[in-house]
Amino acid sequence: MKQLSLAALLAVVLTAGVTLARSPVRNVSAAGHPNLAAAQKLVAQAYDKVTAAQKANEFDLDGHAQRAKDLLDQASQELKAAAESSNDTSAAK
Questions:
Q1: DSSP codes joined into one string, 10-78
Q2: pLDDT tens per residue across span 1-31
Q3: 40, exposed or middle or buried, with CB in 10 Å at 0-12, 13-18, 19+?
Q4: CB 13 within 8 A of CB 1
Q5: Are 71 and 41 in contact (CB under 8 A)?
Q6: Strand, helix or coil at 93?
Q7: Neighbouring C-beta atoms of residue 5, cutoff 10 Å
Q8: Of 21, 24, 27, 30, the residue nearest 43 (C-alpha)
Q9: CA 83, 89, 92: angle at the middle one, nearest 5?
Q10: Would you state the pLDDT for residue 87?
């Protein structure tokens, strides 16, 4: 009985984690950095495609899809940092 309860709890936690997972934030200004904003948009699209692949394969991708999503999220953050760095450099001139 304890194992069944633990399995049910694990299923709820995993489902909640999947529900909370969202595409990386798209927060680079297209007006100020059109190329970085376009790259960030493509990162978000790639993330969504990986999520679709996970659903189509019932999440049985040996963790590789989740790792790819983590890296895509990191790429989005780096694009934002690049835009901020450019803004800092422009402001210093």
A1: HHHHHHHHHHH--PPP--S-TTT-HHHHHHHHHHHHHHHHHHHHHHHTTT-STTHHHHHHHHHHHHHHH
A2: 556 555 555 555 555 454 456 788 888 999 9
A3: buried
A4: no
A5: no
A6: coil
A7: 9
A8: 24
A9: 140
A10: 86
pLDDT digits (tens, 9 = 90+) for 28-44: 999 999 999 999 999 99
Neighbours of 38 (CB within 10 A): 13
Q: How far is the C-alpha of 38 from the C-alpha of 67, rounded, in Å?
A: 23
Which amino acid would we find at residue 54? Q
Which two structure tokens, joined as six digits, stand for 16?
A: 């909640």
Which amino acid type is present at position 90?
S
Q: Are 28 and 37 in contact (CB under 8 A)?
A: yes
